[in-house]
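Input/output pair, single chain:
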Amino acid sequence: GQIVLYIMNKNSHLLIGKKFGKLTMLTDVIADIRPSMALYECDCGITKIIRISDVKLGKSKSCGCGVVTYR
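Output:
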């Protein structure tokens, strides 16, 4: 199957280039799914597609590079 990404024309395009924690929005994308997703770059250099609402609400602040695991 082929995945087609569409640039969204709603207000989320105003967030491109904005920084949220360690994440910077590169582009807003959608693959015929909801909720709205966007491509972010973390300060560590990793790019990741994350739910826009999670980033705006502070639920996602990085790609996971700052997560510490304990044994």
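The chain has a mean pLDDT of 80. The longest strand covers residues 23-30.
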